[in-house]
Structures are given as structure tokens and as C-alpha cells.
Amino acid sequence: MAAKPTEASQIISEVAHAEGGTTKGSKSAQMQSELTKQRNLEETAANVGSKLETAPGSITKEDAQSVHRAESRALHGQQPPSGSISSRAQHEAAVNEGATSTSRTTAPTDPTVQSQMDRQANFEDAASKIGSKLVNEPGNVTKEEADILHSREHRAFGYTEKGGLASQAQHQVAENEGATTGR
Predict the structure, then answer these.
(1) pLDDT digits over 99-139, tens only?
(2) 135-158 b/e with 16+ CB inside 10 Å = b?
């Protein structure tokens, strides 16, 4: 069953027609990509959000990674902010993985749960500090800061997001070093 055209898809169609068709890199292709990313996020967030509301104990690491990827893509590779649906899902997944006898109403006593929460908090702290420096003072981001961000992201989530904040910081450092060495 074909989906009913939305206002956004109608606009994309008009732009594609004005461009003489959709080609890679064209404005209409970029618009379609953004619309698709947003729809994927909405669908994934609805599914995971429903589980968060009705059965938080059923949130898995895969659920958390799925919504994190969708949210990061919709944010153009930026890490989702703390308090977002992906950070809530990551928290629940961490609790659930270590929730053998841990009560959900008290602070976690399982060291693996607390450790995961600490790793995520460490990453969010570094992302906040270094992320704002990356936006406000990109020429002053150091290799050490980029390395810390990369390490903390990998420790918190088990991987680093391609195009994510750590990747952007490392890219900025490479540009900064290239500018100082005259390349």
C-alpha cells in the first residue's frame, strides 16, 4: 500500500521537477535524504519510546543502539543530547543487562550497571565540554581532547559513531595540525 504524499514529499517532487530530475547531490536528493532520516528517527523513537513507557525492562542494547543511530543521523552526526530518547534507552538497556536482582527503584548496586552509567556520564561530560569548544573555538581543540572524547565514547557505547562528535573532533585536530605545519 503506497503512502499518502505529504506536504514535504510534494515540495521535494516539485524541486526535483524544477531540477530536471533527482540526481546524486542535487537539492531534491538532499531534501529526500533529510526527510528519510527524520522519518526513520520518528519511527524508531515511537517503537522504542513505547517500550520505554510500557515495558522498560524489555529495552535491549540493540534497541538503544538503533535509536541512537537514527537520532545521530537526524542530527547530522552529532551525538544526541543527554535526556534524549536514545540516552534514556541506553540507560534502561544498561540497567536491564545488569538487572539480575537490582531493584529499579533504588540506586544500582550491581557494579556493572553502575560502571556503565559512570562511563556514559563520563562521555556526556566530555562531549558537553569538548563539543562546545568544537563549535565555539574549533581552532583550539587539542589532540588530547579528541583522544579523550574518542576513548570515552568507545567505553560508553562499545563503538564510535562514524561522523559523530569524536570523529569531528579528530578531524578538526587534523585540520588544526595541518594549518600549523603549513600543509
Answers:
(1) 544 444 445 556 666 687 888 888 888 888 888 888 888 89
(2) eeeeeebeeebbebbbebbeebbe
CA nearest to 30, candidates 45, 10, 15: 15
Q: Could you tell me if 85 and 63 are in contact, meaning their C-beta atoms sit under 8 angstroms apart?
A: no
Burial 114-129 (b: 16+ CB within 10 A, else e): eebbebbebbbebbee
Please compute Rg for the chain using Cα positions: 20
Burial code (b: 16+ CB inside 10 Å, e: under 16) for 26-55 equals: eebbebbeeeebeebbeebbeebeebbeee
Distances (CA, A) of 97 to 51, 90, 112, 113, 138: 16, 10, 9, 8, 38
Cut 0.70: pTM above it: no
Task: Determine the 3-state secondary structure of 56 from DSSP.
Answer: helix
